[in-house]
Amino acid sequence: MKLLIIGAGGVGTSAAMIISRAGKEGEWAEKVVVSDYNYARAEEVAKLCGGGRFVAEKINAKDKENIKDVIKKHGITFVMNAVEPDFNENIFDTCLEAGVGYLDCAMTLSKKHPEKPYELAYIKLGDYQFERHETWEKAGNMAIVGSGVEPGMADVFAKYAAKHLFDTIDEVNVRDGDNYVIPGYDGVAFGFSVWTTIEECLNPPVIWEKGKGWFCTENFSEPEIFNFPGGIGDVEVINVEHEEVMLVPRVIDCNRVTFKYGVPRDMRALLKDLEACGMDDAHRMIKVGDSEITPRDFLVKVVPSPIEMAPKMIGKGCAGTWVTGAKDGKRRSVYLYQVADNQECLKKYTTNSVVAQTAVGPVIMMELVAKGIWNLKGVHGPESFDPDPFVERLAKYEFPAGIREMDSEYADALNEKRMLDAVNNK
What is the pLDDT of residues 137-181, one digit of tens each? Predict the structure, then answer.
C-alpha cells in the first residue's frame, strides 16, 4: 500500500508514528506521504518518522486537483483523511474520482432538523457517504468511514461482542471517560480538536431504538455514572452526537444504541455559553482586520491549543463499548475497552493519548486492507468486517484491549430509571 495521510495534526502525526514504531509490523505501508497545508509541519512529522519511505507534501484539502496531483505523483493507492470533518465530502469524492481507497476517522457532518432539532433526526452523520455506497461499489472501490477509536475501535468491539460473547443483544452503549488533569491549571482545556468538540457536543445527540429508528434528545441528556477501568473510576457521562449510533444498527441486531461521553460540567457550561453568543457558528463569516473567518475558526485560534496543553496533562482515557444481552439463556453485561495513558503516549508518539487512541484503529484497518483481510467494495463502517484480526493486532501496536464483566443488575437499574424518566417527562 502506498498511503497518503491528509493532515499532519495530532491524528495524522500519531498514525505516521505508530506505523514507524511498528517495525516489521508496519512494512505493509510501502510508502507514507504525510501531507498538510502547513508544509513545514508535514516535513517535521516525516523526519520524526525517520524519513526514507516517509515523505512530506504540501496539500490543500479543499482543492480536488491538488489532491489528485499528489496521488498521481506518488502512485498512492489509499488515502487516510485526518483533517476536520468539514473537508470530508471533498476528500471522499476526490478519492472516488481518483480510483483510490479511502478512510476517515469521523464521517460527513449532520444537519439539525429545521423544526424539531431535539426530537427528530434530519441529515445524519455519514448520510452523504452511505448515499453513495452503490457508486463506490460499482467502481470496485472501498471507503471505510468512522474509523478512529470512537467511532472505529468501538464499533469493532460491538461486532466482536456480537460474534463471540452474545446470542442476542439488547443494547450497545459506547462509553468514554477519563481522569485527565493539568496540574496548576484552573482553566478549561480541550483535549482534542476544538472544532470537533464543539460540533459533537452542541449538535443534538442521536439515539437509535428498534421500531423507532434514529431520534434526537436535548444536549447532555440522560446523565449516568459509569465506572471506568484503568484506575479512572466513576465518571458522569451524558449523551453526545456520535457516529457509532448511526453505524452499529446498520449491521448489528440489537434494541438500542447510545453514545455517552464524560464531558465535565464546567466544560458543558462553557460550550453552552459559546453557543449562546454565536461563537460555535462554523458558517457565518466575520471580518477580522483584512481577513474573514467563521466564529468557530476564530475561537480555535484563540483558545489554548490541545497540542500545547497535551504535554502538561496527566491521567488516562478509556474508550469502550458496553454491551448487554443474553448468552446461553443467561443475562450478560460486558464492557470491552482500551485505556491509554497520556504521558506514555507523549513519550512514544509525541502526541497525546486522545489522538494516539484515535490513530491506532485506522492504522490497523489499513494494514488489514493492505493484506486483503478486510475487503468489501462500497462504503462501510468498521462493524461490517471480521473483528478478530483487528482485536488480535491491538496488543502488537501497543494498545491492548480489555474485557470487563459488568453487573447485569446495573443495566437493569438504568433501564428502569430511563422508563421512569420517560413517564415523568410526559
Answer: 999 999 999 999 999 999 999 999 999 999 999 999 999 999 999
Indicate the number of domains in the chain: 2
Q: What is the number of other CB atoms lying within 10 angstroms of the CB of residue 64?
A: 15
What the block records as the C-alpha cell of 344 is 506514555
The model's pTM: 0.91
The mean pLDDT of 176-189, rounded to a whole number, is 86
- Over residues 36-45, the mean pLDDT reads 96
For residue 396, count other CB atoms closer than 10 A to its CB: 12
User: Is the separation of the CB atoms in 294 and 282 below 8 Å?
Assistant: yes
Query: What's the pLDDT band for 317 if we cut at 50, 70, 90?
Result: very high
Phi, psi of 381 (to 5 degrees): -90, 170
Dihedral angle of Cα 210, 153, 267, 124, to the nearest 10 degrees:
-40
Distances from the Cα of 324 to the Cα of 171, 228, 244, 249, 397, angstroms: 5, 16, 16, 14, 28
Which segments within 124-228 are labelled E, that is strand? 142-144, 168-178, 206-209, 213-216, 224-228
Strand, helix or coil at 94?
helix
Considering only 27-41, 144-158, 263-277, 386-400, which range has the smallest mean pLDDT? 263-277
Give the residue numbers spanning the domain of 209: 153-353+400-425
Is it the case that residue 13 has pLDDT exceeding 90? yes
The reply to whether 130 and 186 lie within a common domain is no
Cβ pair 357, 340 in contact under 8 A: yes
User: CA 385, CA 221: separation in Å to the nearest integer?
Assistant: 32
User: Do 207 and 348 belong together in one domain?
Assistant: yes
pLDDT at 136 over 70: yes
Bridge partners of residue 226, in order along the sequence: 235
- In angstroms, rounded to a whole number, what is the distance separating the alpha carbons of residues 307 and 304? 9
